[in-house]
Design goal:
This protein is of the alpha+beta class. The protein contains twelve helices and twelve strands. A seven-stranded antiparallel sheet has the order 1-2-4-5-12-7-10, with helices on both faces. Strands 3-6-11-8-9 form a five-stranded antiparallel sheet. β8 and β9 form a beta hairpin. The longest helix has 35 residues, at 328-362.
């Protein structure tokens, strides 16, 4: 059993030697961990190019359950606070995002989606998923040929045919059943870590996931009416992220987008739930949080604050604590402690592997 270093608390179960050469994910690996930072989630997001931003104030707690069979990755994320997840899905796979709802609202690609609604992504698609308040999200990534085989066996239809008919856009699924399945597999892995060692068992699980995903494969939803405000908000946010180190001003943002400040404010409030200025501050505070967790031994809090345009250290500390429920100094110390524990765990793992190799040679 492989260890998960702090700040992750949980289990990783691996069944080695299962995957064919074309596997996208570590075959037979099941992860069930509780995490206290988006950076920790990013490290476990195998195959994803993803970044997390905390949107609500407080200490965010995340539970991550991931099941991987080689061609498929089933991932259940539960957030205690509003969170933004942006990036690209795994290459070579078709990815389905399923909103689980919760106390908060969920938006994908700037559009509000209901619990159980499915958003389909290819590897070329950039995605943007954000929640306001506690919520959960399920993602299913399946290697294209494997998905095609299961869809054909279950429904007698080709994946390309369904796509041409528009059936992969905006359908609904039994999100509760998928969440229950994810947790049941993780619980079984805790008792029997190698139960997905058999390719037959792995294929059976893949087919069950696909069957459950398409269980409510009703007529496609009506396409959304074009929304200039949503498009403007998404373009504005992308520009802010690209120019975050400046730091940019609202006047520069308006000029770059050829939009008035009033129009920009309306788009942000409707689709991002904050003013441009407040949203920019949240992005910069998250950037500082990320750097403090990964700081070098010589790095000071003031260095990080200045890097992200915070010149009034007292205000920076107050805003930072309001968002992350800890001071910048506490984050810096926590990051250094986590790094130390990670090095110790890596050293122990290296030592254990050396001993195993010695035993094998001796045998």
């Amino acid at each position: 059993m492989a260890a998960v270093t702090a700040p992750a608390l949980g289990r990783v179960h691996a069944a080695a030697g299962l995957a064919p050469a074309t596997s996208l994910f570590p075959s037979g690996q099941v992860v069930d961990v509780r995490l206290s930072s988006g950076e920790a989630v990013e490290r476990l997001a195998l195959g994803w190019d993803v970044h997390y931003v905390q949107l609500d104030g407080g200490r965010c707690q995340t539970r991550l359950v991931t099941v991987q069979t080689g061609p498929m990755q089933l991932c259940l994320e539960t957030w205690s606070l509003g969170t933004m997840k942006i990036g690209r899905p795994p290459a070579g796979a078709v990815t389905f995002l399923v909103s689980g709802g919760g106390e908060g609202r969920c938006r994908v690609q700037g559009r509000a989606i209901a619990a159980g609604e499915v958003v389909t992504l290819s590897a070329r698609d950039e995605f943007d998923c954000r929640s306001t308040g506690p919520s959960w999200l399920l993602t299913i990534s399946i290697e294209r040929a494997t998905l095609e085989a299961h869809v054909r066996a279950l429904f007698g239809r080709h994946l390309g045919e369904l796509r041409l008919l528009g059936r992969l856009r905006g359908f609904r699924t039994d999100h509760v059943a998928l969440r229950r399945l994810s947790r049941a597999v993780a619980a079984r892995a805790a008792l029997h870590p190698g139960f997905l060692r058999s390719r037959v068992a792995a294929s059976r699980l893949e087919r069950r996931v696909v069957k459950t995903l398409f269980a409510r494969f009703d007529a496609p939803r009506e396409p959304d009416a074009p929304s200039r405000g949503r498009s403007l908000a998404l373009r504005a946010e992308a520009w802010l992220r690209q120019n975050l180190a400046e730091p940019p001003t609202i006047a520069a943002l308006c000029a770059a987008l050829s939009a008035s400040e009033r129009t920009l404010h309306e788009a942000f409030r409707e689709h991002l739930g904050a003013t441009p200025k407040a949203y920019l501050k949240t992005l910069r505070l998250n950037a500082a949080h990320h750097d403090l967790l990964r700081a070098r031994p010589s790095t000071r809090v003031t260095d990080v604050a200045l890097d992200w345009g915070f010149v009034h250290f007292g205000w920076f500390s107050q805003d930072y604590r309001r968002l992350f429920a800890e001071t910048p100094s506490q984050t810096l110390q926590r990051g250094r402690a986590d790094a130390g524990r990670a090095k110790e765990a890596a050293a122990r793992l290296h030592l254990d592997q050396g001993r195993d190799a010695t035993v094998a040679l001796g045998a």
